[in-house]
Amino acid sequence: MKEIIAIIRPKKMGATKDALEKLGFPGLTAVAVLGRGRQRGIAGEVNVEIRPELLSQVKSGGMKYIPKRFFSLVVQDDDADIVVKTIIDINQTAQVGDGKIFICPIDDAVRIRTGEQGESAVL
Description:
alpha+beta; 4-stranded antiparallel beta sheet
């Protein structure tokens, strides 16, 4: 099994979730996060409410942190490539700030309710 972790633009989350669901991957965990890459954020792209203390940190067209969406899902090894390709297809704009994807091995999983282990605990 693989865990696919992605950090993307907030406005792309809905389209990404819909595309993954159409592929048969409806389950994921998503969290609103703040972060930045080497570009130090792009103040003009953010169209969400930003706390005044964050706006005050804008310098030279950048921000200390910008809103992003962090999500993860666990898939079978054979499905990792299609999930990653789908995330890229939806989120790639060729602009700074498109995000990152991390693919991590999963050794085991346990469903707390039933005690099932391995892929049957996830799927």
